[in-house]
Amino acid sequence: MRRIVLWFMTTVTIVVLLFGYSTSTSGPSAVGGRTSAVSAGVPVSGGTSSSTSSASARTVSGPTVPTQWGDVQVVLTVDGSRITDVSVPVYPNGNGTDAQINAYALPILIQDTLNAQSAHIDMITGATVTSTGYLQSLQGALDKAGL
Amino acid sequence: MGMPISLALRGRHAADDRGRAAWAEVMAALRAVDRTFSTYRDDSYVSRLGRGELELADCPPEVAEVLALGAEAERDSGGAFSVWRTGPDGTTVLDPNGVVKGWAADRAAAALRCLDATDFCLSAGGDLVCRTLEPGAPPWRIGVEHPDDPGRLIAVVPVATGAVATSGTAHRGQHLVDARTGRPPSGVASVTVVAASLTMADIDATAAYARGEDAARWLGARPGRTGLVVWADGSATPVGSGTTAVPAEA
What we know:
Mean pLDDT of chain B: 87
Radius of gyration of chain B: 18 Å
Radius of gyration of chain A: 18 Å
Shape of chain B: globular
Strand order of the largest sheet of chain B: 1-4-5-8-9-10-11
Number of domains of chain B: 1
CATH architecture of chain B: Roll
Number of helices of chain B: 7
CATH topology of chain B: T-fold
Structural class of chain B: alpha+beta
Largest sheet of chain B: 7 strands, antiparallel
Strand content of chain B: 25-35%
Largest interface: A-B, 80 and 90 residues
CATH superfamily of chain B: ApbE-like domains
Distance between the termini of chain A: 30 Å
Distance between the termini of chain B: 43 Å
Largest sheet of chain A: 3 strands, antiparallel
Shape of chain A: elongated
Helix content of chain B: 25-40%
Helix content of chain A: 10-25%
Oligomer: heterodimer
CATH class of chain B: Alpha Beta
Number of strands of chain A: 7
Low-confidence stretches of chain B: 242-250
Mean pLDDT of chain A: 50
């Protein structure tokens, strides 16, 4: 229960620092130099897997999959035929020593359009996260939303 | 050549002067790497070395370190990845960008590792390194951009401590080629790699991508990696032991 509480009722302070980093030949162009501390309480979007606002939404628990680092379980929130949320309530993070080697986990494919903010994404990996593509990128949207 | 840097901190120093000082150190480290390695600056050591104006011994030792990583990647990828590429006019250009990006962010993150009781997620141009110290804290949720539609996600990877790098075609102006043919690899749209270090995640993402249609098989043979290969036709192959994929809807 404590794990789920941490997941959805997190009170961590998140500082997102946004800075444009460029070579001196083009001049120091700062995309933005703002810092902000955001205390995230209850998640904003209604599509969480603890309770859903839509009557047709339901949670689907995937199998608990054993990995070399421990068990992993994925829970999807499904609204009709669309996946609206993905959470990982069972994650190999047992005692302190396990935490050292529980570096990383499995990519979970999303088969439908899932909004980066409603999926509670912290950061984006992708080839368009560059200065030219940044403002239109999901990372740009995430950083802007976090400020 | 600019690159956006995003940092998320949580824990003891998330919002204090030490956190901000660490951020400044990260940026200073990245700027120093740029002065040495940037292929977009004629006066960088790498540009001058590539034109034969310098010997390796005249360069800072980090250059030799990066070139050694590049040589290892060339060997491990069967020649598909190389820091030397042939330009359209036939000249050879030294371009270690496939190695430097992850290597530089890994080193820059040292300042963040010094922050006690502080978790971090640092992204440098879409390559990122994370650390989680707080017991029971949720992992960082990393969204993988869809290579065909950058406004969408194709996958989510939870990472507590580790690194994620992505190589792909969506990056305009990037010269990702299969060094064996000199042409962009066919069949693959992007490769995302999750590894313990960002240096290795970045190298493996670039090398796997350069392998083209062989990307998933090659990545699967690399020890300790999980990842995702997205093919040009839009299908995706997760890589790694015990990986489960949500089945495609009919």
